[in-house]
Amino acid sequence: MARLFEYQSKSLLKEKGIPIPRGGVAGSPDEAVKIAGEIDYPVVLKIQAWVTGRANLGGIRFAENADEVKRIAGELLGMKVKNFTVEKILVEEKLDIEREFFAGIIVDDAEKSPLVIFSSIGGTGIEEIAREHPESIAKSHVDPLFGFKDYHGRELARKAGITGKLIIKVGSVLSKLYNVMKSYDARSAEINPLALTKDGNVVALDCHITVDDYAVYRHPELGIEIAREFDRPATELEKIAYRVEKKDYRGTFYFFQMVEKVPPDGKHIGFHGAGGGGSMMSMDAVLNAGFKIANFCDTSGNPPASKVYRAAKIILSQPNIVGYFASGSGVASQEQFHSARGFVKAFLEERPEIPAVLRLGGNFEEKAIEILHTYLKELPAGVEGYGRDDSPDFCATRLKELVEKNGGKPHTPKPYSEYTPKEGEYSFETITGRIYIDHELCDKCETKGCVSECPKEVLKIENGRAVLNMDPEEVKKGKCTECLACEIYCQFHGAGGLHIVLPIPGLKEYRERILKEIKEG
Which portions of the chain are predicted below pLDDT 70? Predict the structure, then answer.
């Protein structure tokens, strides 16, 4: 799920007619002072971070004048909260509160419908309220075809103990909150507290909304950069990785940095899993071997070789890792030679001076292991391939031995580069990249094996040269599966004239920055 900040969530509430305090979001002390001056004092300043218990963490403060706002804003901005660095604060009017409630909606997967929850007691977590005051809570499932009307909200408020004219106001808020959730494909929407002010208004003092990952593309107006449920803003490398997944639905590519800046401690490795359960088991194995994990990565669900290639390039963009470990379920139904070719292309381009142990158990694992050992045998620190009969514990131990043999040498990423074609070189687009064929070199090739290696018969020989065998638009739509077989064959057994360029937007600039940081110490 993709989380929204409080200020973003409140803007959606306001759009649907739910009252919120006057205020605005600030990214500097001067902005905070300006906003406070527009709404008058006293004001409350709240850090914008995906954490609970902000008040106990010192993230909610009050100010009576401009000097206090400037000082407090300076203390809050840049504040470190768990895995979060505060970049924005919400400045709002301080209201006089008579009473607090809880209002929330979640998607109940078991019932396949939204569940509206209201409590006549608010201010703390709903779990604590349910435990200590179960009589204060009322719940109602919603028929998505019919919706949740004002009278449904009034009935729910009545069941929770609300009386009088307040029922009307609470019922209206609950109905509008459902409209927010439906309009923005939210998985959850929570107002806590929903407050009754001393002048009789019902106002949303705090709000948190999460949007379904698969619906993010429908809401560009929300400005969600990465559809993942993180407990902090996404790192630059995570954003680069997400852009790979965002437009390529063939299989899964998930990348998460456990450590944004890997320390030179000789313990961290790049981790590349395949499948949830097998990845968890494999992570346990490397942790038991004494390693630390720099990142979690998963490529599963029959990903093309091109996606595995990009994943490996991104993992190898992390300085100071001392090894690369890939291991999944061991019984994957996907053809593992696709993953093997993705690793081969990435490792040959990167030529890392750290060892790698790649466990590719599953369909055609023997062919996958043969591909790894055939084409990566010359890499200096060693790349070893294993299959289902080799346990994650054995493979992790083997990586440890290779790392020790390599002296714990830390990885330094190479500058990012792509093949530069000759002017007028024959080429065509694939679904996420472009294939270039140097016909002058093609003339010198005796095998023309790139054609026979292509399982989809994308290529043919015409006048002694490899050319397209089908409509370029069909190739661009996915007829070429980007299995990389043609390039690997050409580079090792042909004349070396075929190159596949698979861009990774943003990675060049990222590496330029981190290499500059390394150089400057």
Answer: 330-332
**Number of structural domains in the chain:** 4
Cα-flanking dihedrals φ and ψ of residue 16, to 5°? -95, 5
Is 416 in contact with 508 (CB distance < 8 Å)? yes
Look up the CATH number of the domain holding residue 188.
3.30.470.20
| Cα 272 from Cα 91, distance rounded (Å) | 42
pLDDT of 248 reads: 86
Measured in Å, how far apart are the chain's first and last C-alpha atoms? 37
Which two tokens mark 154? Answer: 């009034």
Residues of 179-204 as b/e, b for ≥16 C-beta within 10 angstroms?
bbbbebbbbbbbbbbbbbbeeeebbb
Both tokens assigned to 124: 């703390």
For residues 210 and 263, membership in a common domain is answered with no
Is 190 strand, coil or helix?
Answer: strand
- Identify the pLDDT of residue 241: 94
pTM of whole model > 0.85?
no
Quote the domain boundaries for residue 102. Answer: 97-222
Per-residue CA distances from 27 to 33, 49, 89, 94 (Å) = 11, 13, 7, 20
Is 249 in the same domain as 213?
Answer: no
Among the three residues 93, 124, 140, which one is the final residue of a domain in this structure? 93
Distance CA 352, CA 360 (A): 20
Residues 318 and 379 in one domain: yes
Helix, strand counts (H, E) of the chain: 17, 25
